[in-house]
Amino acid sequence: MYHRAWSGLLGGVQTGETAFDRVHGMSVWDFRARHPEETAAFDSAMAAIADQIADAVLAAYDFAPHRTIVDVGGGQGAFITKILEAHPHLHGTLFDQPHVTRRASSRLHQSAVADRCEVIGGDFFRSVPANADAYMLKWILHDWPDDEAIAILKTCRSAIQSDGRLIVMEYLIDEPNVGLEGKLMDLNMMVITGGVERTREEYAAIFGAAGVRIRRVVPTATPIAVIEASPVA
User: Fold this and answer.
1) Which residue has the higher pLDDT, 69 or 51?
2) Which residues contact 127 (CB under 8 A, 6 or more apart)?
3) Active site includes 142?
4) What single string gives the DSSP state of each residue in 71-99?
C-alpha cells in the first residue's frame, strides 16, 4: 500500500493533499482499520524498530526518577516492555487504539512485566489515562500537522501531573546537508500521513501552544532525540 502512495507524490505536492489519501481514497488510519493484515504487518515493523532504538534511548535518558509512565500510541508494547524490564520499580500503561491494544495484550502477558503494565484502548485526541508522572510519545507527533499535534499534546497536558514529564522521541530536522534520515522521513510523512518532521524551534512552538515547555533535548546514538518537556503552570 505504501509504494502505491508514493505514485501520488507529484499530485500531493501540487495540491497539498496527502498522497496516500489521493491514491487510496482514504487516510492511512482508515486503511489500516479496514485491513487488519496490513495493520498487523505495520505493528510488527514498529515493534522491530522499537527494539532497535530502545537500548540507545535507555542508555541516553534516565527513566528511573519516574514512578508511572503512559506510552501514548505505544502499539504492541515493545518499547514500554523494554523500559519496565530495565526499571523494576516502574508501573506502566500501554495506550493505543482498541484494535491495536487487543493484539498487544498477548505480547505483554508473555513478558515478565505484564503485572506492572495496564493495557487501555482509546483515542488520544479525546483523552489519555490520567495522573501518571510521565507520558511518552514515540514517533507520534510526526504523523500529524501542527494543529493535530497540538491537540494530542493538549490531551497529554490535561492528564499529566503538575510536576510530571512529557517524553517525546522524534527526529529533529537539522541544518542543510545534515541529518539525512530525518529529512527522508519528513518526505515519507508528507506522502503517507500528511505529517511533518520538525526542528527544535518548531517543537518548542507547538509545545508552547499546548501549555508545555521543553526542558532539554537528549541526543541518542541513533538519529532519534529525546525531547523532555514539562507543564507550564
Assistant:
1) 69
2) 155, 158, 159
3) yes
4) EET-TTSHHHHHHHHH-TT-EEEEEE-HH
Q: Which domains does the chain have, with CATH numbers?
A: 27-231 (3.40.50.150)
Cell triple for 84: 519496565
Of residues 1 and 60, which shows the higher confidence score? 60
Q: Tell me the percentage of the chain whose pLDDT exceeds 70.
A: 97
Separation of alpha carbons 81 and 183, rounded Å? 29
Sheet hosting strand 91-96, strand order edge to edge: 117-121, 91-96, 68-72, 134-138, 165-171, 224-231, 212-219
Q: What is the tally of helices (H) and strands (E) in the chain?
A: 10, 7
pLDDT score for 80: 93
Catalytic residue among 35, 87, 99, 142: 142
